[in-house]
Automatic annotation (TrEMBL):
Reactions catalysed, as given in the entry: N-acetyl-alpha-D-glucosamine 1-phosphate + UTP + H(+) = UDP-N-acetyl-alpha-D-glucosamine + diphosphate; alpha-D-glucosamine 1-phosphate + acetyl-CoA = N-acetyl-alpha-D-glucosamine 1-phosphate + CoA + H(+)
Species of the source: Hujiaoplasma nucleasis
Residues in Mannose-1-phosphate guanyltransferase C-terminal domain copies: 275-361
Location of the region described as N-acetyltransferase in the Swiss-Prot/TrEMBL record: 250-458
Name under which the protein is recorded: Bifunctional protein GlmU
Similarity section: In the C-terminal section; belongs to the transferase hexapeptide repeat family.
Phylogenetic lineage: Bacteria, Bacillati, Mycoplasmatota, Mollicutes, Candidatus Izemoplasmatales
Length: 458
């Protein structure tokens, strides 16, 4: 028997008041719907994930690609209508878990526990509920004699019902056949003129099906993100929990409230992170390294004993015992060797450096391969782009590039060569050479003295 998850992500997210479809909004640089997919996968509780898409569906599809199958909801007529769109993809026998796509804090444990509860009670429908102090905006759980009766949406609730603190998280586990039969009986006769999925409770109740709630003990996990303030609150909770776990694993954080670490980041012990750092994506920071202050690292691997200050590192790698910054920018597959010094205002793009490379100040290297023991002087650059194409610069071992040199690619500087300061090179340099490509200096002695003497005379 195949188990399905149906994720609802077709809505516009009107309350966000912005262009991006709600479920694509990032927390710690990862779209909220990805958290749900990852936690479903981690829970190992379902065999297939179906995502209902509609508003700006190509954005959601670009994020999730082939990790899920898709059902289209071209008109967003409500959550009940959204689930109905998945009918053709779901086999009749068995049951499904339904989750809203705007609930990024839900974790694998909750999914596992709720599904285990559903199986053990042999329920036809389990509604995951929780108790909150401020229930505003959520559907309220209506109970009578400890029996689940209905869910009433905020906009349809009486003043008395609005006082109820038990809310609908929006997660349901339900028998497939009964679900799709039941959805056909739902109407849009309510305040929002939508087909509410929540009405399935009333339908099941009237049909005397086995229904009950499963109460989630930690309500924050069920937080629904409806506007940008809620997004920031969810992000703060996530940030706090991740930082706590990381600090407890032996990472020092100075002023952790200013430090943001993504939930796929791995940080080894004895690392120190200073204020205002942002480490996200699939980054890995190895032991004994110092990061920050004010550093951004995304999808990058940082070796042991590295020191990085005030710098940006994207999709790159920094090997052991190297220092980066202040104010360096490594990007697009830069691979920085061991014992390098990448200093002030140095940008390195798609370049591999060997061991003991130094670019201490004001340099640009793009599309280059550099050997060991190379010094790249202040103000020197690889001229990798002619306006149409990009070309490679190859630099061998033990090369000294003086200050303010332009290496016009494609070009190769062989081992053990020196490039004179101020040179603009457009030809290869053979090994063991000194290359000078600049005009010679001319000193016109007493030039101004002679000039003023000749002025006005004769
Ligand atoms: C919903 C529940 C509410 C619950 C709350 C929990 C309903 C009617 N209400 O309210 O009881 O307390 O979630 O967070 O279900 N969507 C579609 N197609 C649509 C409409 C919505 O795919 O036509 C998707 C949205 O993209 C979103 C999810 O369904 O991911 C929930 O929709 P939303 O409008 O946020 O529902 P709430 O008003 O929060
Ligand atoms: Ca919501």
């Amino acid at each position: 028997m195949k188990k399905y998850a149906i994720i609802l992500a077709a809505g516009k997210g009107t309350r966000m008041k912005t262009d991006l479809p709600k479920c694509a909004y990032p927390l710690l640089k990862k779209p909220m719907i990805v958290y749900i997919i990852e936690n479903l996968t981690k829970s190992q509780s379902v065999d297939e994930i179906i995502t209902v898409v509609g508003h700006k569906k190509e954005v959601i599809k670009n994020i999730l690609n082939s990790r899920v199958s898709y059902a289209d909801q071209d008109q967003q007529l409500g959550t009940g209508h959204a689930v109905l769109m998945a009918k053709d993809l779901v086999k009749e026998e068995g049951y499904s878990i339904i989750l809203p796509g705007d609930m990024p804090l839900i974790d694998d444990l909750v999914i596992k526990e709720a599904m285990a509860y559903h199986e053990s009670t042999r329920n036809d429908l389990t509604v995951v509920s929780t108790f909150v102090d401020e229930p505003d905006g959520y559907g309220r759980i209506i109970m009578k004699n400890e029996q689940l009766q209905a869910i009433v949406e905020e906009k349809d609730a009486s003043e008395q019902e609005k006082e109820i603190k038990e809310i609908n998280t929006g997660i349901y586990i339900v028998d497939n056949q009964m679900l799709f039969e039941g959805l056909n009986l739902i109407s849009d006769n309510n305040a929002q003129h939508e087909y509410y999925l929540t009405d399935i409770v009333k339908v099941f109740k009237s049909q005397k099906k086995r229904i009950s709630t499963f109460i989630l003990k930690k309500p924050f996990k069920a937080m629904g993100i409806n506007d940008l303030y809620a997004l920031s609150q969810a992000e703060a909770i996530l940030r706090h929990n991740i930082n706590k776990e990381i600090m407890r694993s032996g990472v020092a954080m100075i002023n952790p409230d200013t430090i943001t670490i993504g939930d796929n980041v791995v940080i080894e012990e004895n690392v120190t992170i200073s204020p205002n750092c942002y480490i996200t994506g699939n980054s890995h920071i190895k032991k004994n390294t110092f990061i920050g202050p004010s550093t951004e690292i995304h999808n990058s691997i940082i070796g042991e004993n590295v020191k990085i200050q005030h710098s940006l590192i994207f999709n790159s790698e920094v090997k052991d015992n190297t220092t980066v910054g202040p104010f360096a920018h490594l990007r697009d597959g830069a691979i920085i060797g061991t014992k390098n010094r990448i200093g002030n205002f140095v940008e390195i793009k798609k370049t591999i450096t060997g061991d003991n490379f130094k670019a201490s100040h004001l340099a640009y290297l793009g599309d280059a391969e550099v050997g060991n023991n190379v010094n790249f002087g202040c103000g020197s650059i690889t001229v990798n782009y002619d306006g149409t194409n990009k070309y490679k610069t190859l630099i061998g071992d033990d090369v000294f590039v003086g200050c303010n040199a332009n290496l016009i690619a494609p070009i190769q500087i062989e081992d053990n060569s020196t490039i004179a300061a101020g040179s603009t090179l457009n030809k290869n340099v053979p090994k063991d050479s000194l290359a000078i490509a600049r005009s010679y200096q001319v000193n016109k002695e007493n030039y101004f003295k002679n000039k003023s003497k000749s002025n006005g005379k004769k």
